[in-house]
Design goal:
Layout (H helix, E strand, L loop, with lengths): L1 H12 L6 E6 L5 E3 L2 E2 L6 H7 L7 E5 L6 E6 L4 H7 L5 H8 L4 E3 L3 H9 L5 E4 L12 H12 L4 E4 L1 H9 L3 H24 L6 H14 L10 E4 L20 E6 L2 E2 L2 E2 L2 E6 L6 H19 L7 H18 L40 E4 L2 E4 L4 E4 L2 E5 L4 E3 L8 H13 L5
Parallel strand pairs: 1-7, 5-6, 7-8
Antiparallel strand pairs: 1-4, 2-3, 4-5, 9-10, 10-13, 11-12, 14-17, 15-16, 17-18
Length: 419
């Protein structure tokens, strides 16, 4: 797939000013406590341009004097270090994956920068989530600060707008990765449904889902699993997952898997015990109807903001009809988040929300209702590809029809399925 990364780099360099240097860092694993570290998560912009998922790598691209160059800096193999932390990537592998021919070691990076600077750099770019010098722990911030101290005549620009422009429109390869991640998620959810029974613990469902997706080859969860039963389901980002589930309640799952760092993001609300109560079904049907109403306008040209406006309008009308609210503004008591976000290498993928929907965009659609006084929280989330003709629900095969959900759960309860 090196052609994919080569094309991505060309796309980004087409958006930078002449005589510029672009420097991106893969990142490093943050320290958790004492000498322990959290798992490494690669800078997704670096990965988008290289396909390399290793820490302490650096990508340098330039168009100085009209000549385009690309250089990759990787960690040098060290036998003593490798005995502790594993083998370092060899230069030939880095070249093969990324399509970058010039691969050097990181200890040569600063010397190389001096050489680039001698060619009259007008502008240096890096990816700043927040353009600020107040976060020195971010590698790009600390490095650019040191660079501009040494070369104060060089302008500094954020490459993030160019990255957003490129990453918002998914290419066929990217869509396939998202589909695979959704496939892991679907099969994992089926195993969870088979094991869903009263008195099981939320954390058991969380563990079962992770076991399922990892046993199939996924690198793991695309974000921490939400397994929120009963009153916990009204907390949007509940992640404690330590409650024992009770018969007659609902459990809201919000979860996803990874495939080559591309994410899925799915939400479903299931009845513990196999049957929705009349009230639960009433609220579920409203959420499902809101999702359908929003999907109707998920077509090229629709402003992003219109999606949530459509959802709010639908929810307001429906909640008035069942007597839950009297005033339009009271809908925010029960629906208090956005209905969509972009999806890709990040679960909440980088985006420019002022841009209308375009073919190739992948977005979620996730209406929800949260009635704290009744202990009901329902969110239904699918992953949608915008096409020339309209849209395609990439996660359509993950059941959400309430009758089908009840039938599936009860068939498993009947045969005594255990996790």
């Amino acid at each position: 797939m090196k052609s994919f990364y080569i094309a991505n780099r060309k796309r980004i360099m087409a958006d930078v000013k002449p005589d510029s240097l672009v420097v991106l860092f893969s990142g490093k694993a943050p320290r958790s406590s004492a000498d322990a570290h959290l798992p490494f998560v690669v800078n997704r912009n670096f990965y988008y341009l290289t396909g390399l998922d290793r820490e302490n790598f650096i990508l340098v691209m330039s168009n100085l004097g009209g000549e385009s160059t690309t250089e990759l800096f990787i960690e040098k193999p060290d036998y003593d270090v490798e005995k502790w932390v594993g083998r370092k990537m060899k230069r030939a592998v880095a070249q093969s994956v990324s399509g970058i021919e010039k691969v050097s070691y990181v200890e040569n990076f600063e010397t190389a920068i001096v050489g680039y600077a001698a060619k009259q750099i007008a502008c240096v770019y890096s990816d700043f989530d927040r353009f600020s010098w107040t976060e020195p722990e971010m590698l790009q911030n600390s490095w650019v600060k040191a660079f501009t101290d040494r070369y104060p005549h060089v302008a500094v620009e954020n490459i993030l707008p160019a990255m957003i422009k490129a990453r918002m429109i998914k290419q066929p390869y990217e869509i396939e990765q998202i589909k695979k991640a959704i496939g892991y998620t679907e099969r994992g959810l089926k195993k969870v449904l088979k094991a869903l029974q009263p008195d099981a613990y939320e954390y058991a469902m969380e563990a079962l889902f992770r076991y399922s997706i990892c046993s199939e080859g996924s690198a793991g969860n695309s974000f921490p699993t939400i397994a929120a039963s009963g009153e916990n389901a009204v907390i949007l980002h509940y992640v404690e997952n330590d409650r024992q589930m009770k018969a007659g309640e609902l459990v809201l799952f919000d979860l996803g898997a990874l495939e080559n760092n591309y994410a899925s993001d799915i939400s479903r609300a299931y009845p513990i015990g196999g049957r929705y109560s009349a009230r639960q079904r009433q609220i579920y049907d409203i959420v499902l109807g809101a999702q359908g109403a929003v999907m109707e306008i998920m077509v090229p040209g629709t402003p992003f903001a219109e999606l949530n406006k459509r959802c709010i309008a639908y929810m307001t009308k429906a909640l008035k009809e069942i007597g839950l609210i009297e005033r339009d503004e009271d809908v925010s008591k029960y629906y208090y988040h956005g209905v969509s976000h972009h999806l890709g290498l990040d679960v909440h993928d980088i985006s420019d929300r002022s841009m209308p929907l375009q073919p190739g965009m992948v977005l979620t659609v996730e209406p929800g209702l949260y009635i704290a006084e009744e202990g009901i929280g329902i969110r239904i989330e699918d992953d949608i590809l915008i096409t020339e003709e309209g849209n395609v629900n990439l996660s359509e095969s993950i059941i959400k029809d309430p009758a089908q959900i009840e039938a599936f759960i009860n068939s498993c309860l009947h045969i005594g399925q255990k996790y």
